[in-house]
Amino acid sequence: MSADFDVRHTAHLARLELSEAEAAKFQSQLSQILSYVEQLKEVDVSGVDPTAQTAHTVNVFRQDAEREWFTSEQALANAPRQANHLFIVPKVIE
User: Fold this and answer.
1) Domain locations along the chain
2) How confident is the model at residue 18 (pLDDT cuts 50, 70, 90)?
3) How far apart, in whole angstroms, are the C-alpha atoms of residue 31 and residue 71?
4) How many CA atoms lie within 13 A of 34 on its CB side?
5) What is the DSSP string of 7-68?
6) Angle between helices 20-41 and 3-13 (to 10 degrees)
């Protein structure tokens, strides 16, 4: 598979129209990237532990608090259309 095919195929998937100059420029850039990736494959990482984060991260959670929620009648009080305790909204997808 050539880099030219990858550039044209990727442009097609992204619905981009590339001029010949743009395709040549991106082909050159893609070739450079792929050659760099090939260099990275040669690096010995056998003693390196896999990591997902390079910095220690901690999730901050708040304590659950009791709340007074709307009743369904209160929530629907100003709804332009409702049925069976549900909001009626216009169809968006055909």
Assistant:
1) 3-41
2) very high
3) 61
4) 12
5) HHHHHHHTT----HHHHHHHHHHHHHHHHHHHHHHTS--TTSPP-S-SS------PPP---P
6) 110
Tokens of 56: 């220690």
- How large is the average pLDDT for residues 50-71? 83
What pLDDT is attached to residue 63?
87
Would you tell me how many other CB atoms lie within 10 Å of the CB of residue 80? 7
pTM for the model: 0.45
Q: What are residue 88's phi and psi, to 5 degrees?
A: -105, 120
Decide: 55 and 61 in contact? Cβ < 8 Å.
no
Answer yes or no: CATH 1.10.20 is held by domain 3-41. yes
Which amino acid is located at 49 in the chain?
D
